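Have a think about this chain, tokens included, and walk me through the fold.
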Amino acid sequence: MRSLRLLACVMLLLPLGGFAADDIRELKLRDWEPKSMLVTKTTIVEKPRFPVIDIHNHLGGGRQTLTPERVQRYLTEMDEAGVRTVVNLDGGWGDRLQETIEVLDKAHPGRFATFALVNFAGIDDADWSEREASRLAESFRQGARGLKIDKRLGLIYRDKEGNILPVDDQRLDAIWETCGKHQKPVVIHVSDPAAFFTPLDRFNERWHELNEHPNWLFFGDKFPKREEILAQLHRVIERHPKTTFVNTHFGNNAEDLAAVGEKLDKYPNMMVDFDARISELGRAPYSARRFFVKYQDRILFGTDTTPRRDAFRIYYRFLETDDEYFNCAASHHLQGFWMIYGLYLPDDVLEKIYHKNAERVLGLTPPPEANTKAATPSAPAGQVLRVRSTADFEITGDGKNAVWSKTEWQSLYRRNGAGLPLLEEPSNRSRVKLLYSTTGLYVLLDGADKKLTATFDRDGAHLWEEDCFEVFLWPDEKQPNYFEYEISPLGFELPLLMSNQNGKLFRWQPWSFDEERQGIPRKVRKATSITGGAKQSGADISGWTAEVFLPYHLLQPLSNVPPKPGMTWRANFYRMDHDDGRTNAWSWVPVGRSFHEIQKFGTLTFE
């Protein structure tokens, strides 16, 4: 009986599950990994609005490090992310620099720009300044595009007396003057984030990061104050007005935009890049956006990594979209526990930040205009498609009727988050053909695919939310009305009559007929076919095709219908794909974020 009483007492002390649970109050701070419950949109920006010059990368130096395989890996990542040029800050000097320039800059013209370094060894030698200035001038003659200085200056480097070498030490004046004389920029990193100069205690907002990397903490008497290091740099910039200084990490003071702006106003020879600092900028999106717009001529794109497409794409998302509260750790590493917000910068600002400012600072010759757009190949605005005539024929859904051989395929181009076309991949091929008869318009749409994502089982559903093709026809530019037709892989349709005001969709209504009248075709004829798999949602496939006949009688609420030889309509064609929860979109002619920017549509000319 006594043992039973004891067992009962023990059971009362246990949780209902019958075992002792961890006390959440004992959770270690380093183990806390909160997951946000906030539901927000996610924009995938695979390639940027304009080609990118990354001013701040670390690729290593010398032939032994930069093997052909490694360089090709860098180029592949750059191509996948729409990066034109990467600046390698690890060139060094002498033979190493020469080898680096040969295997990067000379072997791949326009893709890499190598920077030199100076050797701080022997800083106390009487001839150090003259020796290093001379060596730096030779580095520039070898082809170095600039000079990189890292944060050890002002924090780590010491003279023979054991004193930390200040950034504004006069022995370095010859270095800065040499850069100005040769019109080469100085990319300089001094100091570090503000939190790295405060105690590692419960108030430190970068506690997790510093707990993992305690050698990044510069708090204490062994190191100068952060404010003094920054002041040293600013004295150098003021003392050498003919030399351009690119202050890394957003002026090495991304936590205080007002202070950075004050220095940009004061020093016209100062620039900033934002490598590894979108975590700071993105948590103050209103101020950051105003700053980027105001100082759009003074900001350079940089990442502070080796080329990685996932890192680049986080930067694009930050700069181009209005996405909210997203994790940017993939851009560099986890920096604090906060999320960031996109700046949705206008095109004129993006173009300067992505490449124009860097071209100016580095003295790079811009490539031909055709290569400065966001992606190549691209379907130009105002694209013209000549539509050939045909006799009426049967719709089968596979496009195998010989009549289709009379006309050529037109490519649809994959869009980024801003609506700009991206480089097409064979695995994602999308295309369209058109013909017209005396009774209607024939459209053949074809796309490679991996998975069939289509669950709607009726006409009139929101087909754009799943895999579909879309046809937009605007017969008369003088009128604000146009026609939209969507079709899913399963053959369901959504015909719509649309109205547009001031370049934006105003209203829409379903628009279709169920039968012919007096022998006049009024009903859409359509069929679809699947290749490489079953015609069912979720099936693994290799592609699908839609064939559609749109009768003019259906379109005659619109003017300028039917078309006659020599007549023109405006039009666009789109594809939506939703594999594995990710949305991709294609268009014949690039518009903006909305498919309904009808003024940007291409032109159909009827032969």
